[in-house]
Design brief:
Distance between the termini: 47 Å
Strand order of the largest sheet: 2-1-5-3-4
């Protein structure tokens, strides 16, 4: 089967590519994909999404799936007129 692997932000720089199509055996998992294609990223913190839904390492992949690796994000600034929680 073939899946599309897409990396964002610093993960893209660390892996040396932004996106590629990867051939995997049937019943391969997210963990299998990570171990075979981006083992150098396994010590980093990131989120995985399969077809725009958060996924775990044991998520089984299917032909045509898109797997995205996303770094953690934080920060931002609240709008000055909204202190605390939005109304």
């Amino acid at each position: 089967m073939k899946v599309r692997l897409v990396l964002f932000a610093g993960l893209r720089q660390a892996a040396g590519f932004k996106r590629e199509t990867v051939s995997l055996p049937e019943d391969a998992t997210v963990g299998d994909l990570l171990e075979c294609r981006v083992p150098n990223l396994l010590g980093r913190t990131f989120y995985v999404a399969v077809n725009e839904e958060f996924a775990q390492r044991d998520t089984v992949l299917h032909d045509g799936d898109e797997v995205a690796l996303l770094p953690p994000v934080s920060g931002g600034q609240a709008h000055p007129s909204r202190r605390g929680f939005p109304s």
